Amino acid sequence: MVHLKLTLVTAILAFFPSVDAHPNHQQQHLVNDQDTQAIKQQALRSLKACEHSTQARRLQQRTAERRELQLRQLREVVLNRRRLSADEVAAKSHKSNLTGITSFDTADNTLLFGTSPKCVLEPEVTQGPYYVKGELIRNDVRESQPGIDLFADIQVIDINTCEPVSALYLDFWHCNSTGVYAGVVANGNGDSSDLTNINATFLRGLAPTDEDGIVHFTTKFPGYYTSRATHIHVLGNHGGQVAANNTYIGSTVSNVGQLFFDQDLITQVSATGTYATSKQQLTLNANDGIFREEAATGFDPVMEYVFVGDSIDDGIFAWISIGINASVSKTVNPAALWTANGGVASSSGGAGGPGGAGGPGGNNSTGAPGGPGGNNNTGAPGGPSGNNSTLRPQC
Question: Which CATH superfamily is domain 34-345 in?
Answer without folding.
Answer: Aromatic compound dioxygenase (2.60.130.10)
